[in-house]
Amino acid sequence: MPRMLALVAAIDRFTEASGRLLAWLAVAMALLTALVVVLRYGFNIGSIAAQEAITYIHGTLFTLGAAYTLKRDGHVRVDIFYRRFSARAQAWVNGVGSIVFLLPLCAFIFCISWNYVAESWAIRESSPEPGGIPAVFLLKSLLPLMAATLFLQGLAETLRSAAVLMRASE
């Protein structure tokens, strides 16, 4: 059990660090959005690249923030019954839910997105807009990366639930 808990702690540290780093992207996105608005309406200057950068940042926050949200128990769920469950019952729900739904979904997203991303990398896909960011392939790479980070955190949550169940049975 100590090795299992050490693995959970290592995954948690990685997710926590990446989540805190991603939080700074939210600040950058807000500042960039304000800049785009001021330039557009104050100086009549438009920038496709800046507008696309906002989309890229938003996509990065959404995809890579999923694991951090899972770690912080921030995903939406119907907890009318769950919140009244004992810690052991909650561990069963979380563990079974992760094994049956979350981990297979992450594996599916990873597998299904792999060729999509590889084809984008093969042609170095870029923005169809003149003056856009020539790195759509990087944006698409977030899909399997999201699946991998969410899988890792899902594994940590599953092992955490298993630890609760093992302690309860002692």
How is this structure best described in words?
The protein is mainly α and 170 residues long. It has helices at residues 2-43, 48-71, 87-122, 136-140, 142-168. It has one domain. The chain is 79% helix and 0% strand. Helix 1 packs antiparallel against helix 2 and helix 1 runs antiparallel to helix 5. GO terms for molecular function: transmembrane transporter activity. InterPro entries: DctQ, TRAP_DctQ.
Task: Tally the structural domains.
Answer: 1
**Low-confidence segments:** none
Largest sheet: none
Strand tally is 0
**Considering DSSP H and I runs of 4 or more, what fraction of the residues is helical?**
over 70%
- For the CA atoms, what is the radius of gyration? 20 Å
Number of helices: 5
Which outline best applies?
Answer: elongated
Helix/strand layout:
Blueprint: H1 2-43, H2 48-71, H3 87-122, H4 136-140, H5 142-168
Helix pairs in contact: 1-2, 1-5, 2-5, 3-5
Quick take:
Its main location: membrane. The chain has 170 residues and is mostly helical.
